[in-house]
Amino acid sequence: MRYLTDRKRAVGKGASGSGTEHFWWMTMSSVALAFLVPAFIFVFGHAIGMDQAQLQAYFARPFPAILTALVTIVGMRHFAKGAQVMLEDYTQGSLRKGLVIFVYSLSWLISALVLYALAKMMFLAAAAQQITN
Known about the structure:
This protein has helices at residues 6-10, 19-47, 52-60, 62-90, 93-132. By secondary structure, the chain is mainly α. It has one domain (39-132). Helix 2 (19-47) packs across helix 4 (62-90), helix 3 crosses helix 5 (93-132) and helix 4 (62-90) packs antiparallel against helix 5 (93-132). The chain is elongated, with a radius of gyration of 21 Å.
C-alpha cells in the first residue's frame, strides 16, 4: 500500500503527465487563431480574382506572407494536437499510434507545402521585379 500525500499526487501535471501543458497550448492557439483567421480571410479574399503575376507579387509582400505562414503553422499544430486528443479517446493500441503518426505527418506536410509555395512566390516575384528593373 502506497502512502501519497496530496502534494505528491498533484506533482506531474495529472494522469497523462502533460495534461495542463496540452490544455494551455490548445487555449493559446485557439485564441491566436481567433485573431489570425479573420485577418487571413480578409487577405485571402482580397487576392481572389488576381492573375498569377499579381498573386505572386501580392503574397511576396511581408504582411500577407507572414500572416499566411502564421495561420498555417498555428492552425496545423492546433489541428494535430486536437486530432491526437480525439484519436486517443476513440482508438486503441497500434491503430491509435499509426493514426497519430499519420495526423502529425499530414500536418507537417501541409505546413511544408504552404511554406514552400510562399517561398517560391516570393522568389518568383523578386526575379520578376529584377527583370523589369
